[in-house]
Amino acid sequence: MGLKHMHEPILFQGYKKKNKYFEGWYYKLVSKDEKYKVAFIPGISLAKEKSHSFIQVFISKKEPEMSLKTDYFRFEKQAFQFEDTPFKVSIADNTFEAEGLSINLNSPYLKVKGQIQIGGLSPIDRGIWSPNIMGPFGYLNFMECYHGVVSMTSPLQGELEIDGQMISFDGGKGYIEKDWGKSFPRAYVWLQTNHFKDPKTSLMFSYADIPFLGFYFKGLICNLLFNNQEYRFATYNFSKVLTEEITPKKATYVLKKGKYTLYIEAIQKDQIDLASPINGAMDHTIKEGLSGEVRIKLYDKKTLLCEDIGIEAGIEIMK
């Protein structure tokens, strides 16, 4: 992996891979009125005869009542095309870029068509020690799974036709991340929301069992964007997980880094099965919701810096 690709995780990382490899982008879109949440996951799966490209769609809507819908659109491997400058991934006549996406998907179960413009990315802080959200682990070439945060929050424009209904995303909010490697971790908690009472606040969190040189360790990456400042809690910057409490639909954590302490309480409100990779093949399933709630408190020693509630949260609890 070149330095450019390491610092720009949105780029296709698997251009030299032939087998036992997956790569997927996660575009989460929330309408301004928060009645519609749509996640598009375009990607490629390299697993010998099971190799293919795909676009997974996850839709959560509030009216007339809360409902979830997902579909997995499978394409030939050759349908996947990519460009680095400027970034672009195409799968059949669907395109995904830093500036937006164009969708034309049709199955007996789901029809989605339209264009969304992304009004600028909000990348994370990067440096020599942290070329991406994985810190120095991003330099290693033998990790089971790599994670990249492309944009903590982005304004949206455009509309999608979903099963014949036009849905406006003008004034909505987006989030982009991605994963690549061989397999998802065997156990993890992941959550993300940028729908706090403070509209500039955004949070992503992942705590997972990470295989490393024949053993496992607990790997933490958490990024809180608050008041135009980034608060990073991660294994590689010597942050500690003081407490972890897990139930089937709730996860509670207390994180500490130096003088900062972050309290997180995440509650799932709904969930549905999504496909996930094992050795590159999309043969496993995970459960994700898009309407969770996340309560946070950030302290500087004993001074409360931030207390907020995030809604429309993507949450996965795989334990």
Structure description:
The protein has 319 residues and is an all-beta fold. It has one domain. Helix content is 2%, strand content 63%. The protein is built from one helix and 22 strands. It has one helix at 3-7; strands spanning 21-30, 36-46, 52-61, 67-75, 80-83, 88-91, 94-97, 100-106, 111-118, 145-162, 165-168, 173-181, 188-193, 202-212, 215-226, 229-234, 240-247, 250-257, 260-267, 272-278, 281-300, 303-318. The strands form two sheets. Strands 1, 2, 3, 4, 5, 6, 7, 8, 9, 10, 11 and 12 form a twelve-stranded antiparallel sheet that branches. Strands 13, 14, 15, 16, 17, 18, 19, 20, 21 and 22 form a ten-stranded antiparallel sheet that branches.
Compact summary:
The protein is mainly β and 319 residues long.
Oligomer: single chain
Instruction: Give the tally of structural domains.
Output: 1
- Pick out the low-confidence regions: none
Tally of individual helices? 1
Please provide the count of β strands: 22
- Give the proportion of residues in helices: under 10%
Q: What structural category characterises the helix and strand content? A: mainly beta
Q: Termini separation (Å)?
A: 31 Å
Order of helices and strands: HEEEEEEEEEEEEEEEEEEEEEE
CA gyration radius, whole angstroms: 19 Å
What's the pLDDT, averaged over the residues?
96
Q: Tell me, what's the shape?
A: globular
Query: Which range does the strand content fall in?
Result: over 45%
> In this structure, how is the largest beta sheet organized?
12 strands, antiparallel
